[in-house]
């Protein structure tokens, strides 16, 4: 999801209005949603922001804060993109205080040194119940980095934490190659557990979702809630895209946004689901409504 940044720098039923007209929503069993850009726990507005994400946007979980990556960043090389484990621990506890879980990125989990891996597991064990998954990084391409991801994934699975690894993929397209096909062929068991991909052009996303849904028990589709790369976002587009993607098999959503990426010189705008003061925006309400769209 940071590709543009790098290159540029069933019970209760109700009805709501959406981009596609009337959308039927199920107020009891909403789709799982996670914010790709979590709150920085040291931000002055952190407490307000996580409350807004949980209580207004209806987020089930967040990832860590989106930090501006350094020049050497790639999917397998952090280079400042993620905060350190101590900061993640703060976020895990902050999110837990409002009922959200956290996807944790901790490179110690796939260290070549078994002692380091053991230490990392011991560090996180007290909060296992508040962790949604081990974040392995984002948008691995089909080349050598996919092999790195596969190797790291197998190490993390071998730790026996009971918490699944997670990665988000680029869709299969000529400019990216057959990223998800490569993943499915190399890691069929992991693919069956979940496939997550991002494409912010609705018809393109629907086409890919129809293909990927037969390969997984949980297809996670990305929804853009950040102004970047010329994308136009409205309340209706968020609700409508979520409705259309539910129809073609998306069971959960990865919201590109949540909070705004930090240190990116305004490239992603000034607000997403929350503003600079941590207050919920109208897009937060749209995500909450979109998550309740019925698959029927």
Brief sketch in words of this structure:
By secondary structure, this protein is of the alpha/beta class. It is 34% helix and 18% strand.
Oligomer: single chain
Per DSSP, what share of the residues sits in E-state strands of 2 or more residues?
Answer: 15-25%
Strand order of the largest sheet: 7-6-5-4-3-10-9-8
Which stretches are low in confidence, meaning pLDDT under 50 for 5 or more residues running?
4-25
- The CATH class name reads Alpha Beta
Number of helices in the DSSP assignment? 10
Largest sheet: 8 strands, parallel
* Helical amount: 25-40%
**Architecture per CATH nomenclature, i.e. the level-2 architecture:** Alpha-Beta Barrel
Which whole number gives the mean pLDDT? 90
Radius of gyration: 18 Å
CATH-derived topology: TIM Barrel
* C-alpha geometry: globular
Count all strands and give the number.
Answer: 10
Structural classification: alpha/beta
Q: H/E order of the elements? A: HEEEHEHEHEHEHHEHEHEH
Our count of domains comes out at 1
Q: In CATH, what is the homologous superfamily? A: Glycosidases
Supply database-style keywords.
eight-stranded parallel beta sheet; 10 strands; alpha/beta; 296 residues
What does this structure look like?
The protein is an alpha/beta fold. It has one domain (about 5-290): Glycosidases (TIM Barrel, Alpha-Beta Barrel). Helices cover about 35% and strands about 20% of the residues. The strands form 2 sheets. It has an 8-stranded parallel beta sheet with strand order 7-6-5-4-3-10-9-8. Strands 1-2 form a two-stranded antiparallel ribbon. Helix 9 (about 235-245) runs parallel beside helix 10 (about 280-290). Mean pLDDT is about 90; it is low at about 5-25.
